[in-house]
Amino acid sequence: LEEAEKYQRRLEKQLRQAGVVIAEDIPYEFAKDKVNAIAQRMEEIGSSDVADPLLREEYFRLEQDMEKYTAALQLTDEWAQEQERLEREWEESIAPANQEALRKVRRHMPVNVRNLSEAALVSQPTPNGKFLPKSIAKKFKRTNCLQLLRIDPEDILRMHPSTLENTRVTGLTLTERRAIYVHLKDIGSRWKATIQSDKLTE
Which residues contact 148 (CB under 8 A, 6 or more apart)? Predict the structure, then answer.
């Protein structure tokens, strides 16, 4: 046991020398209150460039304490649960706009967009019965990540993630980014699970 403690102390010393903050076992509410109080005081001081040397010294100590309590906070189960809740609420808040963005883009995009040339895209009516301007037809073909919006997510799931990495994303509008996000959102976690499973079986 003594040897284990010595080894732990040496390891902690090496981590500190490498600039790694070692998280302490501090209760969630206490750590959260400390982080909020420190953040408020740091805001009152302004920055580490403050003219008063005493305040500069205090700001430096506050930065160290902030690292300490933030690291402890992020180790707690309560913090993990809070992050999950915030992410879930954020997803729910943007879901209607994302779904509307997907509908808007698809209204202008033929189902077989991957098999059509730019010339064919401007000469054939879109799902909303209108004809595409040349600029939009060119974008559908050249910014080819948009073509994923007309591929079944189950088919995309069978693709290797590198296939997506090789698609072109230059010039996407916010609406187009929203559409792609909502279309690929559910398969992202499944990709991650598959990759982790593959690593475990290696």
Answer: 156, 164, 167, 180, 183, 184
Reading the block at residue 103, the tokens are 């509908």
For tokens 């649960």, what's the residue? 81
Has this prediction a pTM greater than 0.85? no
Q: Is 141 helix (H, G, I), strand (E, B) or coil?
A: helix
Quick one: DSSP state of residue 51?
Answer: S
Residue in the block written with tokens 């930065």: 63
Distance of CA 24 to the CA centre of its chain: 27
pLDDT in tens, 168-200: 988 999 999 999 999 998 887 777 776 666 655
Question: 160: Cβ–Cβ under 8 A, 6 or more apart, which residues?
Answer: none
Task: Give the Cα separation of 136 and 67 in Å (integer).
Answer: 49
